Amino acid sequence: MSDPPRAPAVMPRLRRDHFIDLRPFAVSPAFTRLWIGSTLAGLGGQLTIVAVMLHVYELTGDTFAVSMVAVAGLVPMIIAGLYGGMLADAFDRRLVAMLAAVVTFASTLLLAVLAWAQLETVVWLYVLSVVNSAANSIVGATKSAITPRLIPRDLLPAAAALQGITVGIMVMAGPALAGVLVAFAGYAWTYSIDVLLMTTLFLGLWTLPSIKPEGEIVKPGVESLRDGLRFLRRAGNIRLQYILDIIAMTFGHPLALFPAIGAVLLGGGAITTGVLTASIAAGAFFSSLFSGPIGRVRHHGIGIQRAIQVFGAATVVFGLVLLAAQLGWFAPAVVDEDHANLALIALAMVALAITGAADNVSAIYRSTMMQAAVPDAMRGRLQGIFTVVVAGGPRIGALYAGTVATFTALWFPPLLGGFVIVGLVGLLVRLSPGFRAYDAQHPVP
């Protein structure tokens, strides 16, 4: 197949409203098929992720064993993301994504077969979940490098906003649906539904034309990775957005505290943990739904700064809500897993929804900057390096929140972290005039 035709650099906007820009669907049927496949496959992937954790807990009764599912997959996921980015910069990206998707499909299918045969073991669940997450890292890095070849540059923010819709659907609906399916249908049916949904990703990838990287091709290996790192050292705007994201995720990602918050501070137990987590995803979803004005902003560096500072301010508010709970404001006579402080839970949900919305707006600008400013031959490797940021930031954040809360109180890490985010992001951007001056019409890495 031949490379997809280049779309015009600028597409007229028919409606200037606040709703999500759907022109990528009209401009590129290939992008539409890939988006539908990615959304449905991502929803299925969430089913399997949650089902595996529930499955491990049922077999072991050990929460540490459940947490190790994520820990075991971290290093393979990072390595696979880095190597997948190098593959995407050296070979036909459609073929790389297809082969990685086959591995994901096979691991999920084997999970389903083992569950139907009642031969599943903890070791198998660990191994197959690690394989699944590693292969998905390659698919993700490759798809991100494919997107700019399917739609014109001025529609990249709209494409990123549509990705926010995908993530919102996955995170809001996936865990809840997984719990219902496991409870009423069992693990075998849950894994099998993921297998069925996974086939839609193949449809989106199979119908793509051949998409070979443009520019100088570097054979995958150490030198290719060094080449990507050398480019990143020269690309001040891309490097700073990585740093800003790490700051946000380190000091404003208190998810590790949610179980304790639900148990002893706000009450409500696991239900409170679930609604607090879902609030973040809901914020991301609705910010994408009303993302129309985002595509009209040219200064993406300023957009990233302001979005992350709003994220930090909302994190401060979340910390203040927890402080109010510590002081007993609006609390019922007893606060425990069966008695919740509903007023403060509602306020906490609003604050977390704002963090989710702000983080999604930042992600739209960051994704657009990376896809527009990075040369095509380097996009896969930069996306692979970003995998390290995405995978490592929240885990560093969990370490920060857990450690600080151990020596202080549950409300202190988000309160302190929010102020650190607002101040540190403002300082770093102030010291980076090129980042402040970044113009989407003339992207400079």
From TrEMBL:
The UniProt entry, under Gene3D superfamilies, shows:
MFS general substrate transporter like domains (1.20.1250.20)
Q: Where are the transmembrane segments?
A: 34-57, 63-83, 95-117, 123-146, 158-182, 188-208, 242-265, 271-290, 310-330, 342-365, 385-405, 411-429
Q: Which PROSITE patterns match?
A: MFS
Q: Where in the cell is it found?
A: Cell inner membrane
The answer to keyword Transmembrane applying to this record is yes
User: Which residues are in the Major facilitator superfamily (MFS) profile domain?
Assistant: 178-445
Q: Which Pfam family is an annotated match for this chain, by its short name?
A: MFS_3
What the entry lists under InterPro entries is as follows: MFS_dom, MFS_trans_sf, TM_effector
As for membrane topology, the entry says:
Multi-pass membrane protein
Q: Which UniProt keywords apply?
A: Cell membrane, Membrane, Transmembrane, Transmembrane helix, Transport
Protein name stated in the entry: MFS transporter
Organism of origin is: Microbacterium fluvii
Lineage of the source organism? Bacteria, Bacillati, Actinomycetota, Actinomycetes, Micrococcales
